[in-house]
Each structure stands twice: as structure tokens, then as C-alpha cells.
Amino acid sequence: MSRIGKKPIQMPSGVKATISNDRAVTIEGPKGESLSHTFPREVTVTLEGSVITVTRANDLKKARAFHGMARALIANMVQGVKDPFEKILEIHGTGFGAQVQGDKIELDLGFSNKVYVKIPSGLTVEASKGRPTIVKIKGADKQMVGQLAARIRAKRPPTPYADNKGVRYRGEYIRKKAGKAFGDKK
Q1: How many separate domains does the chain show?
Q2: CB-hemisphere CA count at 13 Å for 161?
């Protein structure tokens, strides 16, 4: 049996859960945030008091795969409505920067034109000036936070050469490469 799937999820104070049809789960947090997800038929979600448990219908491979995944998604939903998830990006490079304009983030990444990325509803983005430029993404949905951070990073990934330019996650290690000048000089 899945070790992750069989662990019960304890609901913190201020968080409410609603389960309909044993598959549709809605979690509401103290700040008014609400997340919902409908799970496949192979898993059943039950709420007893302040504890959510996930069980599977049978022992087929598909049911075993959904069991742990469903439990992890529900645990992330519970954690996200209580304490929002956060990803921090650093933008390195001379003249590189970012600023939030309404529901878009404007990125200046050394291209001839500025790059715009739409911010999904439910997420908040802050951009601070300085070296390096810091972009903070916060939200209750862990998947949406990570997806937006990955989309921004994909616009100009960090280079492994000496210039060290690009967008990277805070704390990300970039392995350096030597470049052209490394070989024998004749």
C-alpha cells in the first residue's frame, strides 16, 4: 500500500473542507481562498471530524498511482490555503529587470523587445529593483505558483558560461563551463 496515500491529513484550525460524491474536494482557508479538485474514480476521499483520509478501490496499478497522488494534492491544498506557497526568482544581467503592470509582468531580458507574461488569477507577483532583480510569486495553489515561475524562467534560462546572465530560482546552483578560450593557445 502507498506509504504517502495511507497517511491521514489533519486539518488545521480555520480551514474547512467539503467533499461531494466521495471525489470532489473543496478546501477553504482563513483568508477566503478556496481550492477544489475532482479526483478519479479509483480513489475515495472521506472526512471524519478534522481528518481527511484517502482510500483506493482496488489494487490495480492505476489505482495505486492515484492513491498517493490524491493524498499529496489534498495535503498541498490544505497547506496552501493556510500558508501560501512562494517561489523566488532572481534576474541576473546588466540592464535586466522586471516590473508588474496590472495582470502582466514585464520582463526586460536583453532582447530587442520586452517580454510580457500574464499572471493567472489567484497569484500575486512582486518585483523589486536592485541587483539582482527579485521576483516573488505567491499563491495558494502550489502547481500554479510553480508553473508561473517555470514560464518566467523559460524566457531566459541562466547561462553556464562566464557572463552568468538569465533568470534562475533563488538558491539554484549553475554549474560553470569554460567556454571557447579554454583550449590550447597556439
Answers
A1: 2
A2: 5
User: pLDDT tens string for the chain (186 positions)?
Assistant: 458 888 999 999 999 999 998 889 999 998 778 999 999 999 999 999 999 999 998 999 999 989 999 999 999 999 999 999 999 999 999 889 999 999 999 999 999 999 999 999 999 999 998 889 999 999 999 999 999 999 999 999 999 987 889 999 999 998 888 877 666 665
3-class secondary-structure state, position 25: strand
Residues 165 and 110 reside in one and the same domain: yes
Residues 92 and 153 in one domain: yes
11: three-class secondary structure by DSSP: coil
Question: Could you tell me which residues are beta bridge partners of residue 125?
Answer: 137
Do 36 and 93 share a domain, yes or no? no
| Residue 94, domain member (yes or no) | yes
Whether 105 and 149 share a structural domain: yes
**CATH (domain of 91):** 3.90.930.12
Q: How far apart are CA 30 and CA 3, in angstroms?
A: 30
Angle of helix 142-155 versus helix 61-82 axis, rounded to 10: 90
